[in-house]
Amino acid sequence: MIFSSASWVRQKFQSWSIHHFPKYYFTAPEDQNLISLLESCTHTSEICQVHGSMVKTGLVNVPFTLSKLLASSIQDIDYAASIFNHIPNPNLFMFNTMLRAYSISHHPRQAFVVFNGLRAQQMMLDQFSFISTLKACSRELAHETGQWIHGVVVRSGHGLFTNVKNALLHFYFVCGRIGDAHQLFDEIPQKIDVVSWNTLLSGYIQMSHPTMATCLFREMCRKGLKFSTTTITSVLCAVSDLGNLDGGLPLHGHCVKMGFCSDLNVATALIAMYANAGFIDLGRKIFYQVPEKDVVVWNCLIDGYARNGQLQDSLALLQLMKHEQVKPNSSTLVGLISACAAAGASGVGLCIGNYVEEEQMALDAVLGTALVDMYCKCGFLEKAIDVFGRMEIKDVKSWTAMISGYGVHGQAENAIRIFHRMEKEGCRPSEVTFLAVLNACSHGGMMVEGISFLEKMVREYGFSPKVEHYGCMIDLLGRAGLLEEAHNLIKSLPIEGDTTGWRALLAACRVHGNVNLGERVKRILLEIFDEQHPTDSILLSSTYAIAGRLPDYTRSMQEIKEEKMMKEAGCSAIEMNE
């Protein structure tokens, strides 16, 4: 590969006679030739060969050509950094190139170092310097750094640039600072730039405030602003989140009138809106009206059918997608697999698993995790273990799904083993991971290990336990017969008003026949709920029966009948092979 790249570059250089160039400057046609050569490079090895030839001819000493070389190298951030670090006096374009390179790389924080270096050179910054650095702040959620840069923007007068203000708006929304974003938007003197409005709209949607997004859209309508497809897509997403078809139908009509329905993003948003409102057939009509469908449109309709419980229709669409020779991606299947897991539809789940094998789809973190979760919930633990073992990249959700799967299947020791392996491989557990392992300890009766994990969660990882974590501990202590300890624990919590832990304690009282504590717990539940709950009365009556206090049991059951307390009926479903 290196030899072929070298010969390729050599032929290119010879074709436009590099020996005719002066040592330190280019004429315009020759500049264009070098730009064309760099743009035709597809691999770092090819750029490296051009770089070597530039060194030999002295072209690396020409700022213009050196800038173009640097700009062509940013896809390989390490190589670009090595070029930049050897430039004696980089100009503003070179600094901005590195700021942009780091802002889109896996190391966005390095953009802050470059930005500080640029300011140390006392150069006059331009809008591109700020836009790239603010993008890095957004990716790193560096709120304090972003606010400091905002101050520099104001002092330097670059706040007048619309692109800089839009970058600041995006930054504040990503960091969850809705008030700061809206204050910045209100300071814009003439709100005629549709991009600023679109940024605010998408920000509200990202922060799960669809009502505010629709209100903002109505304000745009009152001001007579011209909408773009981006505007309509954002508003459709807001209406979809609200599940408000009344607000969506006029928007659909406007899209038809303006010719927006041919835009793939708008069509996808319309399908999602109808699917969320429960009118998936209307979404399918839009799907058929799209002349050239990409994989995202297919994914949207497949996911819509899955979320509406029509798994067989989703599977039929998947087969149609294959017939149309549209290559699926992991997102195509994740929604369908999740629906199978929630519904316990093992037959459809196995079909999808076989489809993944037939298509030889890569088991990335998203698809692999969905399969592991589905197999565990449908009872196929061995298949889940196999998929987990074949995943090349595992994120914290992947590990958590496997830990939870072992816990659900009563294999607490394996759940603990996977947790320790996760730590050993350098993946930091989340609060949900601790909930999964605590739940596994609870089902396995591993009290000592459960207490140890709760301590690790607080002391080693700095998490504050939530209601669910304490609920697992109360259940664990209750199963071990340590009812008073569980009672003391729940009394010491700042979340005494939560009924989950108290009801878990009442269930433990039933198991061990502890009537006195059971009666106290039921009184507390009555105070919290301010009404009789059938589950509490049934649990207490069962406690009387286990303790051998039949008169109290009879009296309790009579009270349940007289007060006509009805426990919500449960239901089960099984799949049958036809």
* Radius of gyration using CA atoms only: 31 Å
Quaternary state of this entry equals: single chain
What's the helix count? 33
Q: What portion of residues is helical? A: over 70%
Q: State the end-to-end distance.
A: 56 Å
Major sheet summary line: none
Number of strands: 0
Which percent band covers the strand fraction? Answer: under 5%
What global shape is seen? globular
What structural category characterises the helix and strand content? mainly alpha
Mean pLDDT: 84
Q: Uncertain runs with pLDDT below 50, 5 residues or more?
A: 1-6, 8-28
Topology diagram in text:
Elements: H1 2-15, H2 28-39, H3 44-57, H4 63-72, H5 77-85, H6 92-103, H7 110-120, H8 127-140, H9 143-156, H10 162-174, H11 178-186, H12 194-206, H13 210-223, H14 229-242, H15 245-258, H16 264-276, H17 280-289, H18 295-307, H19 311-323, H20 330-343, H21 346-358, H22 365-377, H23 381-390, H24 396-408, H25 412-424, H26 431-444, H27 447-459, H28 467-479, H29 483-491, H30 499-512, H31 515-529, H32 534-546, H33 550-562
